[in-house]
């Protein structure tokens, strides 16, 4: 298993707007194509302009196949265009993580 750890930095004071748009239009599509969401988090302490979400995949090939299917969906492309027009996102970063042999999440 691998985990795609994503961190999005949103324009200050606009996190709620970004989350609302994602919840309505982005998340249903990602849930359909990407499969196993391990968590979706907003800050309580620390930086208040970032959100984090984690997605589990069998391996890198599984991740690539699922993300390719997502990007091929016209509704995903429309969502990305809407997000761009809303101009809420400043940066996005992701890391691919592998669990240790003693990790409680298989």
In short:
This protein has three helices and four strands; from the N terminus they run βαββααβ. With 106 residues, the chain is α+β, with helices and mostly antiparallel strands.
Going across the major beta sheet, what is the strand order? 2-3-1-4
The DSSP helix count reads 3
Number of extended strands: 4
Number of domains: 1
Q: What is the mean predicted local confidence, pLDDT?
A: 94
The appropriate CATH architecture is 2-Layer Sandwich
CATH class reads Alpha Beta
Beta-strand residue fraction: 25-35%
From the 3D structure, determine the CATH topology. Alpha-Beta Plaits
Class derived from helix and strand content: alpha+beta
Q: How would you spell out the order of helices and strands?
A: EHEEHHE
How far is the N terminus from the C terminus? 7 Å
3D shape: globular
Low-pLDDT ranges: none
Percent helix among the residues?
Answer: 40-55%
Radius of gyration: 14 Å
Protein name: NIPSNAP family protein
InterPro entries: Dimeric_a/b-barrel (IPR011008), NIPSNAP (IPR012577), NipSnap_domain (IPR051557)
Family: Belongs to the NipSnap family.
Topology record:
Blueprint: E1 2-10, H1 15-34, E2 36-41, E3 50-57, H2 60-72, H3 74-86, E4 89-97
Antiparallel strand pairs: 1-3, 1-4, 2-3
Could you please describe the fold and organization of this structure?
The chain is α+β, with helices and mostly antiparallel strands. The protein has a single domain (2-97), classed as Alpha-Beta Plaits, CATH 3.30.70.100. It has three helices and four strands; from the N terminus they run βαββααβ. The chain has helices spanning 15-34, 60-72, 74-86; strands at residues 2-10, 36-41, 50-57, 89-97. Strands 2-3-1-4 form a four-stranded antiparallel sheet. Residues 5-104 form the NIPSNAP domain. It holds the Pfam family NIPSNAP. Belongs to the NipSnap family.
